[in-house]
Design brief:
By secondary structure, the protein is an alpha/beta fold. It is built from nine helices and 14 strands. Strands 6-5-4-3-2-1-14 form a seven-stranded mixed β-sheet. A seven-stranded mixed β-sheet has the order 7-8-9-10-11-12-13. The termini are close together.
Length: 263
């Protein structure tokens, strides 16, 4: 039995829970330790049972609570070496045994969960997404993506469940109060994926057989859930793919845990 839950997913903080028969892990820990503990308890998960935290990249909305959780519950933290170099000053003291380095592109195991990190284009030291292979299922988490390229499509294709970034609406971003420098960063090839781009990716993957999709990492300033959902749904309909019939499409809440998905 696999359980998957977005604890938090927004431009302010991200943490995802994944459980297999033998292991429980967090993908990122980008809020305070107390907030993540509260979220885990709300879905009836004992925080002391977390076996690992895997990190996508060093930005604070992905690592804020990682250090305190590791120290309090003796949890190993997994990240690539460049990310470790970049995030170490922000984490505080981590026990040597809990500093685990992986190599991007190479599989590793956390008990019965096979983890394969893949490169994502983002303005970080070495940002990654993750494929998780459990019980012959493939689950993909892909956020903080400036653009989609062939190797990233290959990483996402064939998944049973995909959590994909749908960060912003371009018109809202351009009309909003962000300074031009920040707007350029978000729109750049090292920035974030828009609703339109997310829809195009999901349509292409759905045509090849994936049926379960979650939209995440929504901007609190330049997006809202209904807009993200409808933009992606419109693109799916244009490709003769019916949300709710051919595929399931949901938006992760930004500030509280979403529903626990089991399969």
């Amino acid at each position: 039995m696999i359980k998957f839950c977005g604890l938090y997913s927004s431009s302010r903080g991200n943490s995802i829970f994944l459980k297999s028969d033998k292991s429980s892990i967090l993908i990122d820990a980008g809020l305070s330790g107390s907030k993540i503990i509260e979220a885990l308890c709300s879905i009836d998960v004992d925080p002391s049972e977390i076996d690992a935290i895997v990190i996508t990249h060093e930005h604070s909305d992905h690592i804020q609570g990682a250090g305190i959780l590791s120290r309090r519950f003796d949890i190993p933290i997994y990240a690539n070496c460049k990310t470790w170099d970049a995030m170490t000053p922000s984490l505080g003291n981590i026990a040597i045994k809990n500093i685990q380095c992986f190599k991007t592109g190479q599989e590793f195991y956390i008990d019965d969960i096979c983890v394969k990190p893949f490169k994502t284009p983002h303005d970080a030291a070495e940002s990654v997404g993750f494929n998780f292979f459990v019980d012959n299922k493939k689950i993909t988490v892909a956020t903080d993506i400036g653009y989609i390229f062939d190797e990233l499509y290959e990483a996402v294709e064939g998944s049973d469940l995909v959590l994909l970034e749908s960060n912003h609406d371009v018109d809202m971003l351009m009309a909003g109060r962000y300074p031009w420098s920040l707007k350029k960063r978000i729109l750049s090839d090292q920035g974030h994926l828009s609703n339109m781009c997310a829809g195009e990716v999901i349509a292409k993957i759905a045509i090849k057989g994936t049926t379960k999709f979650l939209l995440g990492h929504l901007s609190e300033e330049n997006n809202f859930p209904e807009l993200a959902y409808q933009t992606v749904a419109n693109i799916l309909n244009e490709n003769n793919i019916k949300p709710g019939i051919d595929v399931t499409l949901d938006v992760l809440p930004r500030c509280n845990p979403g529903k626990v998905i089991g399969f």
